[in-house]
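As noted in the main text, all predictions were made from sequence alone. Below is one such record, for Penicillin-binding protein 2.
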Amino acid sequence: MLLVFGGRLVYVQAVQGPELADQARDDRTRTSLIRAPRGDIVDSDGEVLATSVERFNVGVNQLLVRNYVRKDPETGEVLGTGAAEAAKMLAPLLGRDKAELGAELVGESTFVYLAKGLTPEDWRTIDALRIPGIEPEETTERIYPNGTTAGNIVGFVGRDGHGLAGLEQRFNEQLTGTDGSLTVEIGGTGQVIPTGLREEEPAVPGETVHTSIDRDLQFFAQQQIDEAVAKWGAQWGAVVVEEIGTGRVLTIADSGTVDPGDYQKWAEGDRGSRAVSAPYEPGSTGKLPTFAAALEEGVVETGSLFTVPDRLTMPNGQTFSDNDPHETKRLTTAGVLADSSNTGTVQIGDRIADDVRYGYLRGFGFGQPTGIELPGETGGVLREPDSWDSRTRYTTMFGQGMSVSLLQNTSMVATIGNGGVRMDPRVVDGRTNGDGDFLPTETVEGERVISEETAGEVIAMMEGVAADGGTGVLGQVEGYRIAAKTGTAQIVDGSGGLSSRLGSYVGLAPAEDPRLAVGVVMYKPAGMSYGGVIAAPVFREVMGFGLRQLGVPPSTTPAPNLSRGPGQE
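Prediction:
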């Protein structure tokens, strides 16, 4: 028997010993996750738009809390013991019923949640009670300190901390970072063994996303579009501000913008940005590519004269009319644009081959996504010329029979302001990684659409639109030369009718040295729908604020004052 027991002892210690020791160690070790802080999203000045704050979940080791003894700090007298006394002390701090909380403290579990999302101050108050078995779990909470400001751009996260919209979704992987871990040895009642195993893999924080958004301008633009939508009874409205020459988008403001911290209160269709995702017919703002193409191709000059009736039938039998009846006029190319005449525009556009004009529309970015770093972007609709019918070939000359987003339309104006070179719009300047290195957004060289000379001529004609007597006079910004274009378009309803309209206004300033392009759209206003009336005032206020925000000095040179023709003198 001694030989049997001796042999068994040798076998257990020498042969099975290392394996059994590893099993025992595995039984004593616990590994917990160290969550990586989600990266911040900041505006162009580094002001926080989205961040994660430290929070604590609090749980109880029911095997340890039974050992709690509360004594009078002065006399040492025992005032209470166990789970019942612990519940009495914790209940007011956790906002819980004492009896209900006490029931959760009793049992055989080593961890039961008592409360979640406590602030560090809350946890320090609880920890000061020195109740054995009351243990913290460190976590984070996503907060949006600016409320609805830029909520349509920033987006939001779900309960699992993953991005569900906006930049939170688009850069979810970069913002998330890499979680770490902590492994320790514990005793029989769940306490950490001070001299035991302790292995820690630090978490790598998520990257910080630096946007091009100007928070103050964004806030102001949201105010202006909300007020305009309410005043005119529009279904929705939007504003886009782009910095000319860089493609940096300083503002994408939508009416009724979502609060990312409480996004469940907004309908799903109202949580994103319609300025990016909602296509609409540009109306007369879509005339600008037609005029630019005609000047670039040399088929007209700014002073070319046209006979412009209020109603005109083209050689293929299609008839078009201007918005308001008028006597036949003699207008220059500049006068046709200032009057926003459809009959004059089709005469100009008819001088260009369809495939050539289509090439200019594509060059300005119509019919394709801009590539901005936001989910859900529309490319709009621009069919190829071989699919145009006898009427569509003309309607596309004055902004109908195709659709764009407000972002695309504003980018088109920015291209004109940039001397005819198109820059891809972007809303992210770069990212800062966990090591503190800034990674700028890769940009591509701009693409020339029209010559600098043609761009200058288009701007000069657009100044006539915003001048006295033009359709865009209400968009004038005091002290600055403005170049703009108004737009009004019909909207097809569910039964195929045209019962609703939209008004829009796009422009740039200062006209002599363009710095900003601003686009405004008001969708389905209840009454008045002219872009020069309902959208122009929003343009005026937002453009004025933006120029002052950038410190752009007022204009000091006069506008070119192009001739509009004998009919306008």
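Residues 264 and 271 are 9 Å apart (CA to CA). The chain has a mean pLDDT of 91. These features were considered when defining construct boundaries for the mutagenesis experiments described in Section 2.9.
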